[in-house]
Amino acid sequence: MSDPTNEESLRVVAISGSLRTTGYTRMALEIALEGAREVGAQTQMIYLNDYDLVFCDGRDKKDYPEGVHRLRTDVKNAQGIILGTPEYHGSYSGVLKNALDLMGFEEFGGKMWGLIGVAGGTLGATNALNSLRSIGRALHTWVVPEQVSISEAWNAFDEQGQPKEDQLRQRLMDVGRQVTRFAYLHTSEQMQEFLRLWEEAPENPGGSI
After folding, report:
1. Going along the chain, which residue ranges are E strands?
2. Following DSSP, what letter does each residue of 109-144 receive, concatenated?
């Protein structure tokens, strides 16, 4: 399927907040990345256990090990980021929090975020997603409206890791599509020109109201 947002340089990464590479978080993120590729993005799945991360302990950034710098580079080079997490005790995973703490405005500022949460219970992962939205605001990201909270994730996917219901598949793909399309709009020459003109516009001659 072709799309006017198709840009070879546009990159979307998905960060899995679960260390289980065969878990439901990965399954959900893979479908979201499929949606991103459908509208022209280059994609990458980021498994945090591939980076040998250490705990964020406040040391100078340059003193962290190579894996931390590699993670920062992979995220910094993306224009769109999809975060996926299991919900643990009413919040998102500790490994994802640590990864976010190891990064900052340089990696996330002004970028598009999409959010996906999975849970074993019937209440879903809404609390985890709400918390991540707050972090997105703190990091000056643009969190897209579409998000997916999957309840009873153990019953939502088949043995091949595919959603059992097409509606869930489409919702997951929509997260990837929205992140890609908004990232394209945000980085396009037309948008940059609009922002430049907005900043250079004269003050309202009518004064403040």
Report:
1. 11-16, 42-47, 80-86, 112-118, 142-150
2. TT-EEEEEEE-SSTTTTHHHHHHHHHHHHHTT-EEE
**Which domains are seen in the chain, by residue range?**
11-200 (3.40.50.360)
Which residue type, as a one-letter code, is found at position 19? L
- Residue 145 structure tokens: 């409206």
Helix, strand, coil % over all residues of the chain, rounded to 5: 45, 20, 35
Please provide the size of the chain in residues: 209
What is the C-alpha separation between 190 and 1, in angstroms, rounded? Answer: 24
Residue 65 φ then ψ, to 5°: -70, 170
Residue 60: burial class (beta carbons within 10 Å; 0-12, 13-18, 19+): exposed
What is the per-residue pLDDT across 79-128, written as a single tens digit (0 to 9) for each? 999 999 999 999 999 999 999 999 999 999 999 999 999 999 999 999 99
